[in-house]
Every structure is written in C-alpha cells, then in structure tokens.
Amino acid sequence: MTVKLLIIPGLGDSGLGHWQNFWLDHFPNVTKVTQDNWDQPLLNDWVERLEKTIQTIQEPTILVAHSLATILVAHWTKTFENPFIKGALLVAPADVDSPQHTPECTWNFAPIPTHPLPFPSIVVGSENDPYMTLERAQELSKNWGSDFINIGRKGHINSEMNLGLWEEGQEILKLLIQKIN
C-alpha cells in the first residue's frame, strides 16, 4: 500500500532543523497541518484545523505527530474519524497533565485522552525527554493500544538532537506500514 504522510507539528511548529521538516522535503507524498497560532495553542482550534486538513485527504494516510501534536491526535479521535487514516506515528508525547513537564500554554490539552486509538499506532519515547517520562509514555502507549519503542537517550526527539532525516524514525515508520498492510 502506498501511503501519504500528514506531518503534524507540536508547540512552536517544527523548526528548520527538525526531522519533520526534513521528511516534508524528502518524501514525495507528504503534507503538513498548519496551525494559526503555534505559540499559544488552543485545543479546540487545533482539533478543528486538524479535522479540516484531514477532510481533504482522499488516499491512505499515516499521521506523523510530534510532541503536543500526539495529544492532539488522541483528542481528534474522540470526536472524528476518517477511513483514509490508516495509522499514526506518535513521537515524543508531551505530558500536558504534568505542570513540571510542560509549559502552561499547553495545559488546555489536559487531560490526555486514554481511550484506544481507532487505527494502528506506534509511540516513540526517549529516556531523557524533558516533556514526558519514559514510564508515562509507555503508559499512554498501552492506553492508546499503540506499540511502544524506546529509542534511548534522544531528548525530545527534535531539532536540538540534530537528527536530520532521522533514519531510525524512517525504520519505525516502515514497521507501522508493515503493520497496516
């Protein structure tokens, strides 16, 4: 199955050095959700923009979410569904339930939904992510019915880690595509 990727950045958008932007430029069948306000996220606005973007999809698609956007995807699935969404790669979830792990501007995304997601998914966590403990990421993964992959000490799996095209993430994406096929 040929799939499209829908890149869904988190708080602040993905900077130029972020693997999501490298994937956007590298893969042929990729698009991105663009929020109106990247720095003061409002859950309802972000869910609405995600839904509007997903409504335009007419081919099998995998959601590729980072940080706050992983929580956004879980919220979106509480209300919406789309037969073209075949799976989700959920990288470095942000623990919006924990004031010591996330900035106040993200707390309106709390509580984090804990229902199983309606499609196959993989949560990718890091042992030294400042925005969510590995144990909490594993717990969310279990609640969401997702597979979980610990990639070691890669911080928040963002541009600060200089991951470039993040080949390890591409291998994880291939695992998800195999699971869907």
Indicate the topology.
Layout: E1 4-8, H1 19-26, E2 30-32, H2 43-55, E3 61-66, H3 68-79, E4 85-91, E5 121-125, H4 134-144, E6 147-150, H5 167-180
Parallel strand pairs: 1-2, 1-3, 3-4, 4-5, 5-6
Helix pairs in contact: 2-3
Protein described:
The chain has 181 residues and is α/β, with parallel strands linked by helices. It has a single domain, classed as 3-Layer(aba) Sandwich (Rossmann fold). The protein is built from 5 helices and 6 strands; from the N terminus they run E-H-E-H-E-H-E-E-H-E-H. The chain has helices spanning 19-26, 43-55, 68-79, 134-144, 167-180; strands spanning 4-8, 30-32, 61-66, 85-91, 121-125, 147-150. It has a 6-stranded parallel beta sheet with strand order 2-1-3-4-5-6, with helices on both faces. Helix 3 links the parallel strand 3 and strand 4. InterPro entries: AB_hydrolase_fold (IPR029058), RBBP9/YdeN (IPR010662). Keywords: Hydrolase. GO terms for molecular function: hydrolase activity. It holds the Pfam family Ser_hydrolase.
Question: Top keywords for this entry?
Answer:
6 strands, hydrolase, Rossmann fold, AB_hydrolase_fold, alpha/beta, 181 residues, 17% strand, hydrolase activity, globular, Alpha/beta hydrolase, RBBP9/YdeN, 6-stranded parallel β-sheet
SSE class? alpha/beta
- Give the tally of β-strands: 6
The CATH superfamily is identified as Alpha/Beta hydrolase fold, catalytic domain
The CATH architecture designation is 3-Layer(aba) Sandwich
Keywords: Hydrolase
GO molecular function, one term: hydrolase activity
Organism: Flavobacterium polysaccharolyticum
Protein name: Alpha/beta hydrolase
